[in-house]
Specification:
The structure holds two protein chains of two kinds. Chain A is an all-alpha fold. Chain A contains 15 helices and no strands. Chain A has two domains: about 40 residues, no CATH class; about 240 residues, MetI-like (MetI-like fold). In chain A, helix 3 packs across helix 15. The N terminus of chain A is likely disordered. Chain B is α+β, with helices and mostly antiparallel strands. Chain B folds into two domains: about 230 residues, 3-Layer(aba) Sandwich (Rossmann fold), CATH 3.40.50; about 110 residues, OB fold (Dihydrolipoamide Acetyltransferase, E2P). The chains are: A mainly alpha, B alpha+beta.
Chain lengths: ~300, ~350
Amino acid sequence: MSGAVSSLSTPANAVVTRRAVTEAAWLRILLTALALAFLGVFLVVPLVLVFQEAFSKGWQAYLAALTEPDAWHAVKLTLIAAGLAVPLNVVFGLAAAWSLTRFQFRGKQVLITLIDLPFAVSPVIAGLIYVLVFGSRGWLGPWLEEHNLSIIYAVPGIVLATVFVTFPFVARELIPLMQEQGVSQEEAALTLGASGWQTFRRVTLPSIKWGLLYGIILCNARAMGEFGAVSVVSGHIRGKTNTLPLHVEILYNEYQFAAAFAVASLLALLAVVTLVAKSFLEFKHQRDRERATRAAARQEAS
Amino acid sequence: MSIQVRDLRKTFGHFKALDDVSLTFNSGELVALLGPSGCGKTTLLRIIAGLEYPDSGAVLFSGADATFTHVRERGVGFVFQHYALFRHMTVFDNVAFGLTVRPRRQRPSRGEIAERVHRLLELVQLDWLADRYPDQLSGGQRQRIALARALAVEPRVLLLDEPFGALDARVRKDLRGWLRRLHDELHVTSIFVTHDQEEAMEVADRIVVINQGRVEQVGTPQEIYNAPASPFVYGFIGDANRLCGHAADGWAELAGLRVPAPEFGQSEPRQVTGYIRPHDIQLQAGDQGEGVAVRVESVSQVGAALRVSVRIPDGDTSLQVELPHSGGRWPFQVGEPVKALPRAARVFAG
C-alpha cells in the first residue's frame, strides 16, 4: 500500500519540497558538490584504479591471471562457499523470521540479539572460534583427527565461517517486514481452507518476495567477498583453500600487482552486478505498482 | 448451522479474556457480540473460528464437538477488521483463493470458479473491480471484497470481527444496512463483533452483551434496551441517569426522586443505585403538581428532541431529560423552576 501511495504522490511532493526549501542556491550546490567529491574520492576513483591496474599489462596478462589454475580454483571455491552459505541462510533466515514474528515465547529478545552477533563481532573472531572448536588443538580436534575429518584449513571450515558471517542478512531483512505485515493475511488463508504449505507459498512468500531477494543479494555479496573470517580458517593453501579475496592478498604480497588487480576486478565486478541487480529489483517492484495504479486510473476514467 | 459454546475459559497471562462463557447461536440468525474494547468478544469469535483455542470448555457446531477442529476444516468464513486481503493478488484472485486451494478432486473447474467469483462480486456490487489490487480500493470496497472472499467457500457460519470498525461514519452506516439485507438474502448463521451499540441495535437479531470476559445479557435489541439485566448493560446501552439512594418497603428514594422498587420489599433501608432513561422523565412547568422540584440548567435541541438538563436543589445531582419537540418555542427556559417526575426506573442493589 505504501508503495503505491508514495509512487503516486512523489511528483506532487517534489514541487512542494522545492518551494518549501529555504536554503540558498550556493549552499545547495556546495552540499551536492561535497557529496559528489566524497563519492568520487572514496568510491569511483578506487574502482577505476582497480580496472586500470588490472589491465596495466594488457588483455593477455589479464586473461592469464584469471585462467591460471590457482585463480580458477579460487573462483570455484568462492562459488562453492557462497552456493552453500546463501541457501543455508535463506532457510535459516526464513525460519528465524517466521518464529520470531509468528510466535510468542520466552527469550525472543535474546534470539534477536544473537542474530545480530555476526555483525557485532570482528570477522577474525568469527574465524577464531571455529579454530578453537574444530582446530587440531580445539575441543573437537582430536576426535575429528581420529575419524580422519578435517574442517579447519579445509573447505568445510571456509563454508562454516562464511555461513556465520552472512547469517544475519536474510533474517534482518525479513523480520521487520513480517512484523509489519502481521498474521491476519495468513489467518485469512487458513480460514479459507489453505494448508500450511499453501499459505506459505501463495500468501507469505509473495508478500515477502522483494525483501527476501534483497536479503539474498546482500548475503551473496558478503559471502563472496568475505576475507577476515575465511582467512583465519583457510590456512591459505594455494589451489586448495584459497577463495578469491584470499587469492588477491597472496598475489599482492608476492608483488604480482597486475594479477592481483585482475582477480580483484572480478570481485569489483561482482559488487557492481550486485548493485545493478538490487536497483533493478527496486525498479521492477516500483514499476509493477505503478502499472497497476495506472491501469486502475484508466479504468476509472473510462 | 447452530453453534453452541459451553463454559469457555481463556486467559492470556494474568488477563482473563473469557470467564465461563456459555451461549447458543441459532441457525440462520445474525448475532452481535457487543462490549467495550478488551471485554473478550474478539477472543470468543476467534475461538469459534478456530484461530484460538480455549483453556477449557467446548465449541459445538450443530451439536458436534468442534473445540479442537483445525480452522481449515471448520468451514467458517471470517472477516477481519482490517480486511486482511491478499495485497499481491487482484480482487478476482482474492475471492477465488478459497476455491483454488482445494484439493484437486474437490476443486471446481476454472470456468466454474470464474463464474462463482463473478456471481459473488455481483452480490457485493463490485463486479467492475475484479482486476484491481486491494491498494486501489476504498475501505468500504475492501471490506465488501473481504466478505465476498469469505462467502466464496460457502461457509457454514460467517464470523465478522469489527467489520466496520476501520471505516468512517458515513460508509459504516451504509454498510450496516447492506449487511442486514445481505443476511436476509443468504440466511447463513452470522456472528459479528462490535463495540458500537447503535450498530448492534440496528443490524442484529439478537445481542450478546459481554463485559470483562462474562456474558452480561442476551436478548433482542428491544429486550436489551427496555430491560437491561445489570447496571453495566444499563450504562452501556443508551443514555441513562445514574442515581444513588436507598430503598425499602418497595420504594426507592433516589436523590429526592421516589420510584417504585418492588424487588426491595424489606423494611430495613438498603443502599441502591437507580437508572432512569432521559426520555422516561416527565417535566412540568411551575412548582405545582407531582414530582421533585428542580431548576432548569440548560436546554438544547438535537433533531426532533429537546435535551434539558435540570438540577436537583439538595445536592450536586443533575438529571438529563429528553423530550419530544416538534418545533416552535421551547417550553422551558434556563433558570425556571419545574417539577420532574420519573415514569420508569430500574433499581439495583449496591
